[in-house]
Amino acid sequence: MEKRHSSGLRPRPNLGPGGAAREVAAPQAVPVPVAVSAPASRPSVMQAPVLVLNATFEPINVTAVRRALVLMLKGVAQAEETNRTEVHSTSKAIQVPSVIRLLSYRHIPQQSRALSRKNILLRDRNTCQFCGAALPASELTLDHVMPRSRGGRSSWENLVASCYSCNNRKGDRTPEEAGLKLRRRPRPFTLHTSRQLMRLIGHRDEKWRKYLFY
Ligand SMILES: [Zn+2]
Q1: Looking at the DSSP assignment, which residues form a beta bridge with residue 92?
Q2: Distance, CA 180 to ligand 1 centroid (Å)?
Q3: Residue range 9-15: average pLDDT?
Q4: Strand-strand pairing, 140-144 and 49-53
Q5: Secondary structure (DSSP) of 43-81
Q6: Which of 8, 111, 176, 180 has its CA 20 to 30 A from that of 24?
C-alpha cells in the first residue's frame, strides 16, 4: 500500500466508475518538496483520471492528476498528453496531464491486484453473478462459490459478487445444488481486466484512445 505524502497535496481521491487500477504504477513514495495546489475554484482538477503508460507505451494504470503530478515532479514519469488546465507549484505552472508515461520500464506481475471486497466488486462490475442484478456496493456481498464450510478458499476463483437474496438462497451449497448458475467463471483481476476498465474510462478522454485502442 501507499505511504502518505508530506507534500501538502490533497488526499487521494476515488476514481469514478470502475474505480480502476490505482496502485500498480506507484513506485515507493518519497516526499516531494513542491506543493501543488489546484485553484480553489477547480477542486476536481486534481481528481481527474490520468492514464499511466509503461515506458513501452503499454497502458498499465489509471491514476488521479494529483498522483500523476507527484510522479512527474519526482522524475519518474513524463506527460505524454496534457489538457489546457494549469496547476501552480511554488515555482512554476504545470500543465495538467491527461496521459503520463513512466521513464523506466516496470514489470507488472500478472496478478498484481490485492484480493479485496472492493476489487472483487470491481471485477464483477457490481453485478450479482447469479441473477445479474447491478446493485450498489452496499447491496452486494461476497459469495464463496464452493462454500467455506466445505473447504472453499477465499480466492479470485472462488469469490463472486452476489446480492443478498441469491446469497441466502444458495446458503451452504454449490451453485449447482442450489439451482443457480454463475454468469461467468470468476478469474483473477488481471491486467486484461484492468485494460477493459481503462477502455471504459477512456471513453471520457479522447487523448487516451490512441493508447488504449490498439
Ligand atoms: Zn442475485
Answers
A1: none
A2: 9
A3: 39
A4: unpaired
A5: GGGGGSEEEEE-TTS-EEEEEEHHHHHHHHHTTSEEEEE
A6: 8
Tell me, in angstroms, the distance from the centre of ligand 1 to residue 145's CA.
13
For ligand 1, the distance from its centroid to the CA atom of residue 167, given in whole angstroms, is 7
Could you tell me the three cell numbers for 101?
508515461
136 CA from centroid of ligand 1 (Å): 12
pLDDT tens track for 64-80: 899 999 999 999 999 99
User: In a 10 Å sphere around its CB, with 0-12 CB exposed, 13-18 middle and 19+ buried, how is residue 3 labelled?
Assistant: exposed
Is 27 a residue whose pLDDT tops 90? no
Strand 140-144 relative to strand 93-102: parallel, antiparallel, unpaired?
unpaired
Kindly give the distance from the C-alpha atom of residue 139 to the centroid of ligand 1, in angstroms, as a whole number: 10
Q: How far is the CA of 159 from the centre of ligand 1 (A)?
A: 14
CB 5 within 8 A of CB 70: yes
Ligand 1 centroid – CA 129 distance (Å): 7
pTM of the predicted model as reported, rounded to 2 decimal places: 0.53
pLDDT in tens, 105-138: 988 765 566 778 888 888 898 999 999 999 999 9
Q: How far is the CA of 14 from the centre of ligand 1 (A)?
A: 26
Query: Are 175 and 145 spatial neighbours (Cβ–Cβ below 8 Å)?
Result: yes
- 128 C-alpha to ligand 1 centroid (Å): 5
